[in-house]
Design goal:
The complex is a heterodimer of chains A (131) and B (366).
Chain A: E1 9-10, E2 15-19, E3 25-29, H1 31-37, E4 40-44, E5 51-52, E6 57-63, E7 67-71, E8 76-81, H2 84-87, H3 91-94, E9 103-107, H4 119-130
Antiparallel strand pairs in A: 1-2, 2-3, 3-9, 4-6, 5-8, 6-7, 8-9
Chain B: H1 15-20, E1 24-28, E2 31-36, H2 40-49, E3 52-55, E4 60-65, H3 69-76, E5 90-96, E6 102-110, E7 115-119, H4 124-134, E8 140-143, E9 146-152, H5 156-164, E10 177-180, E11 183-186, E12 195-201, H6 202-214, E13 218-219, H7 222-231, H8 268-277, E14 281-288, E15 299-302, E16 305-315, E17 320-328, E18 338-343, E19 346-353, E20 358-359, E21 362-363
Helix pairs in contact in B: 2-7
Classes of the chains: A alpha+beta (131), B alpha+beta (366).
Chain lengths: 131, 366
């Protein structure tokens, strides 16, 4: 069973989103997602400053198995990216909720995480996939 | 193969060992097989730098004997089994249909009595039926339910000798085999490293597997098997070639024994006609040192026309992406080796090279 922290919110496309104390949102991919992808070999990150719409294709993760898009779980502006992933993509496998984060968003006015799943809801998505 | 997808998956005798080792198990050619045991990359590096063991018991093994065995193989295999001039010698070849398409690639071993043919799991039924259909010479064909392990890597032979108490394998030439009781050990493999493949009774496989792991040999799944074979420039049946492609466009022209001219192997007439027309394509290597991963099916744009990636991976040994691609024939000037590959809607520069990419842990292409 994969790790699904209760304090995060989730997209059905396997991104997690964490509301930071300064109001920004940190985004990564879930433990379930990294496990399904296998060893990550490349990550393509967005340019800081880029404006994102909700569910917009924002980053790419390439594993030994496949290339996958990472979608913005909330509309806003990219304010930081995890440059460490360029040289050490294995961080996505090793610490998907920690050092393996992808980018940070300043949410657009009025945008919220309410449309996302909570941990129980996301666990249901994962259970449905592994039937 | 899809028609069999509802059938229960077959398990090799080592299935419980894969479960115990924490394998990610996936369906493969009707079998439930290990994809990896945690990290495909770590398994790949283990084979390049030390030793790894693969369960390849899903592969098909046919023993051919009787007076008609040689003439059956002379018809079915485009390479010439007459080249096997001693017991234990082995050769790689392809079985062709009448149109010159590849039914399968296989290894033929000469035994004290008859031959052993090892072919792919996915084509087991096709090869069984093809051998039977071509057997006008009355050969005895016995499909063997043996287990098979591949032990590969610079330390593989030494550790296998220790695990199996089998001395002096190092003096066995490459592409030859030795038998002891119901075991056959061959200096063959699918990784570009030294090592061996051992065929043995299923009920003896677990003890050998466990002893190899106890000695520190790394269990390796299908994921790393694919990246190792592609670095070694070796084709995967069903992906780099199939019944619609001839060996001449699959980088396997070297496996065709054209002489003697009177040997009428199946597919010969079609290949001769293809040669007379001019072979229009070739299977070659592709290297992309920029970021991104080449994958099966991506279009390739060359100076002389379009091609396609047949197998593409991130090469763990090289640290960038490599592929096999089927492209139009062209010259060999440096400019003609430049090409572009379409990855997710964008064209990326790449370079055509002659495979293999890696042998014995080292980059070998120019």
């Amino acid at each position: 069973m994969s790790d699904i922290p209760a304090e995060l919110r989730y997209a059905s496309t396997h991104e997690w989103a964490r509301l930071e104390s300064d109001g920004t949102i940190t985004v990564g991919i879930t433990d379930h997602a990294q496990d399904a992808l296998g060893d990550v070999v490349f990550v393509e990150l967005p340019e800081p400053g880029r404006e994102l719409g909700f569910a917009e294709e924002t980053a790419v993760v390439e594993s030994v198995k496949a290339a996958s898009d990472i979608y913005a779980p909330i509309a806003g502006t990219v304010i930081a990216v995890n440059e460490a992933l360029v040289g050490a993509p294995e961080l996505v496998n090793q610490a998907p909720y920690g050092d393996g984060w992808f980018f940070r968003i300043a949410p657009a006015a009025g945008a919220s995480l309410d449309a996302l799943l909570d941990a129980a809801g996301y666990a249901g998505v994962c259970a449905g996939e592994s039937h | 193969m899809d028609s069999a997808s509802d059938a229960p998956l077959l398990c090799t005798p080592l299935h419980p060992a894969h479960v115990a080792a924490g394998a990610r198990l996936v369906p493969f050619a009707g079998w439930e097989m290990p994809l990896h045991y945690g990290s495909q990359l770590a398994e790949h590096h283990a084979v390049r730098s030390g030793s790894g063991v693969f369960d390849v018991s899903h592969m098909a093994i046919f023993d051919l004997s009787g007076a008609g065995a040689t003439s059956l193989l002379e018809r079915v295999v485009a390479n010439n089994v007459a080249r096997l001039d001693g017991v234990g010698k082995a050769l790689y070849g392809v079985a062709l249909n009448e149109q010159g398409g590849v039914i399968d690639d296989l290894i033929v071993y000469r035994r004290a009595e008859g031959y052993r043919v090892v072919s792919n799991a996915g084509t087991r039924a096709r090869v069984r039926e093809w051998l039977a259909a071509c057997n006008s010479s009355g050969a005895t064909i016995a499909e063997q339910p043996l287990a098979m392990l591949a032990v590969q890597g610079p330390r593989a032979l030494q550790l296998f000798e220790q695990a199996a108490d089998w001395a002096d394998l190092g003096s066995l030439p490459s592409f030859s085999a030795a038998e002891r009781g119901s075991w056959m050990v061959a200096r063959t493999g699918y990784t570009g490293e030294d090592g061996c493949e051992v065929m043995l009774p299923g009920d003896e496989a677990m003890a050998l597997w466990n002893e190899l792991l106890r000695l520190g040999v790394t269990p390796v799944g299908l994921g790393a098997r694919d990246t190792l074979r592609l670095e070694a420039g070796l084709n995967l049946y069903g992906q780099d070639m199939d019944e619609s492609t001839s060996p001449l466009v699959s980088n396997l022209g070297w496996t065709i024994a054209w002489k003697p001219a009177e040997r009428q192997f199946i597919g010969r007439a079609a290949l001769e006609a293809e040669r007379a027309r001019g072979v229009g394509e070739r299977l070659t290597g592709l290297v992309m040192e920029a970021r991104g991963v080449l994958r099966h099916g991506q279009p390739v744009r060359t100076a002389v026309g379009m091609g396609v990636v047949t197998s593409g991976i991130f090469s763990p040994t090289l640290g960038y992406s490599i592929a096999l691609a089927r492209v139009p024939q062209n010259g060999s000037s440096p400019a003609e080796q430049q090409c572009e590959v379409e990855i997710r809607g964008k064209w990326h520069p790449a370079r055509l090279v002659k495979p293999p990419f890696v042998r014995s842990g080292q980059r070998v292409f120019e």
